[in-house]
Write a structure and sequence with these properties.
There is one protein chain. This protein is an alpha+beta fold and about 60 residues long. Helix content is about 20%, strand content about 25%. It is globular and about 30 Å long.
């Protein structure tokens, strides 16, 4: 089952929906400053029910 995480108003990301495909390799790539680390932190926080951590990312 695919899962989706929505990231909104988080550092340099104004609005994005990220699809996580189970049992497959998920790769994030892009230029510096485009939000790769922000997406990783958001996914980690959501997966570990640590949504309070996400408040630190708001601009």
């Amino acid at each position: 089952m695919d899962k989706y995480i929505r990231v909104k108003n988080c550092n340099c990301i104004s609005d994005a929906t990220i699809e996580i495909v189970e049992k497959s390799l998920n790769i994030k790539y892009g230029s510096n400053g485009t939000g790769k680390s922000t997406i990783s932190e958001a996914i980690y926080a959501q997966a570990n029910n640590e949504t309070d951590r996400l408040k630190d990312f708001k601009p």
